[in-house]
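Collaboration report, partner site 2.

Our partner group contributed sequences for two proteins of shared interest, and the home lab folded both. The records are reproduced in the order in which they were received, starting with the first partner submission.
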Amino acid sequence: MKHKFYLIPSLLCLLQLPVFSQEQKTDTTREVTMTITKTYTSHRRSYTTFGGEGALLSFGRDIRDAGKHVPSIPRFTLFFNIGTNYNYDFNRNFGFFSGINLKNIGLITKDDIDSVKLKRRVYTLGVPLGFKIGDLRRGVYFFAGGSYDLAFNYKEKKFINGDKKEKFNEWFSDRTPLLMPSLFAGLNMAPGFGVKVQYYPNNFFNKEYKETGNSGGAAYPYQQLDAQLIFVSLHCEIRGRYHHEKIKKKTIRYQKNF
């Protein structure tokens, strides 16, 4: 009889073993921290563009000789109007630019009474500084600014009754100011193409220019001549190399139970 009483506690202990095993399984749950690193390129803010004015139509605004109006003819040119600009975009809608540009600008005057036509032009090397507002990524924006041009080559042609009579070319001529400031504004309507207007408020000619004849006498051919130059051009540009391209890394951490 005593042996039966000893068996009862033993059976109760055996029945509790599965319960202990289940509790041990639940205690093995773990927390694991996973790290994911994503790499991406930030917005390219600075870049170089190449192009220039393309087709350029220049003319004098209200040209006067000794106070009298002088008829003028618009002057059209394709060569050489090229340049390159450095651009920096603060965001998608605003940025600024500067660079160096070569332009062929000038004017044509005609005297109907004497049938005399004069073509005068200068090659300039200009440094613009401007801003742009709009959708810069799509290439649709308004731009404006100012420029300082260095006039380094002057050419003049004289025609009488349609026949060329005189022609000369001078490097760094005193017939025009050496430095020619200007203002410009334009609209870029599609990636690479637009319209630009540029205005030179100062006199195109140097009134103090003096010529000395064979007899030793002095003459001032531009002393009473006033002409402010303005031109309209088909602005074009090709986006080139990007600068300061930044690569950023972003790390994401989260926990998961297993």
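Second partner submission, folded after the first:
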Amino acid sequence: MALQQIYRTSLTLLTDLYQLTMAYGYWKNGMSEREAVFHLYFRKHPFEGGYTVAAGLEHAVEYLQQLKFTEEDCSYLRSLKGSQNQPLFEEAFLDYLRHLEFTCDVDAVPEGTLVFPSEPLVRVRGPLLQAQLIETPLLNIINFETLIATKAARIKEATKGDQVIEFGMRRAQGIDGALSAARAAYLGGADATSNLLAGQLYNIPVRGTHAHSWVQAFDSEAEAFEAYGAAFPKDSVFLVDTYDTLEGVKQAIEVAKKLQPRGFVFGGIRLDSGDLTYLSQQARILLDEAGFNSTSIVASNDLDEHLITHLKQEGAQINVWGVGTKMITAYDQPALGGVYKLAAIKNKAGEWEYKIKLSEQLVKTSNPGMLQVRRYFSQGRYLADMIYNELEPIPEQEQLVHPLDSTRRKIIEPGTKSKELLVPIFREGTLVYELPSLASIKMHTKQELSQLHESIRRYVNPHNYPAGLEENLHQQKMDMILKLRSTKSVGEV
């Protein structure tokens, strides 16, 4: 497993302090075993887009499988002090943690699945203490990888089928940022990575060219190209902009001609600066005139979906895109606002009580119940998603209500095909889900995007996909909001 190969010690303390203080509070109050339901979801698509690609489940599964407080973990917790220099946690609680075993049910959306605001990507049902304890690591893993997978999908869409190579490790947010992002970028749409460790751990194809320093290390550009071509006669891509780009292209062509009798294959040239449209057009002319019609033109230099689209519209002759900083860091939106909210808890009598988090902003008011998502489809197209409460019956006439505007509703035609998005991952702490290969996840992402209307996939002002609350769930939520607000005094309103 990749994470355990990188980080040899326990990851159980990869969480916020308040998760442990709440756990201690639940334990002290006899609530630790109370059954509860939490949902992980986001409120708004990243990048002002029309869809989001779910990712990170495999790493989340691995984390949960390894969830155990070691002696070293407990020793550290024992060292923590309160404001009066008293032990923060009593010894009996640390002993409880030492023997804690994960026993929750977890349901989740498979990686590569398209998801929409308010839909649970992960649902956790189990003892309150355990379900609360895993909030931070789940958000850490799912938020970041979902963000990067979505960015990669947008970039791949912009290339209209060209190859995309993830070049971003040197600009990534740390070691794990580089690795988890390389994996997420690949499942989202990238075709390869320059990151060798990611290639080794995740079986991602690796690609690369050479740096400007290679050219600078030789007495001339031609000498540098010839030496590189001799070393890699079947895989050479020459970086041509160290001194003068078009002169560099000419030098590359001359070297390729010189090496051809020895079986040299001229793979491509790379442009890393300047006017990429003009330079690629001129380079294509020079290459074609020299008979190198199949030689690729690779481009890098702060690329993202917007710049790639612009270059395509201008007629740039680029067919391989090396995308680094702006994909690996999700440069224009470096965080997904995923949240993890309590939605139901059993009372002392063992009956379910629904819970919501109230807010003056409706978008921040959570949904109650044990939620599932039903996706409707027809003739290879996704039509709509309905979020519903599994603990309550659904009317025969299925109707969606927009989460933020109750006047916007959609009636589902009887007989419309559908599928449930959340699938069982853990049952009572035991893994019951067969993790797919990364290659199959990547294919799933591609298939998912093909079933989404192009108006929803566009970058600017995308059409809104119909994703709403089941009618009874919406009414239940409104009733709970009114009840909670009616308990306020006049001065609090």
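Feedback sent to the partner group on the second submission included the following. The longest strand covers residues 338-346. The longest helix spans residues 135-158.
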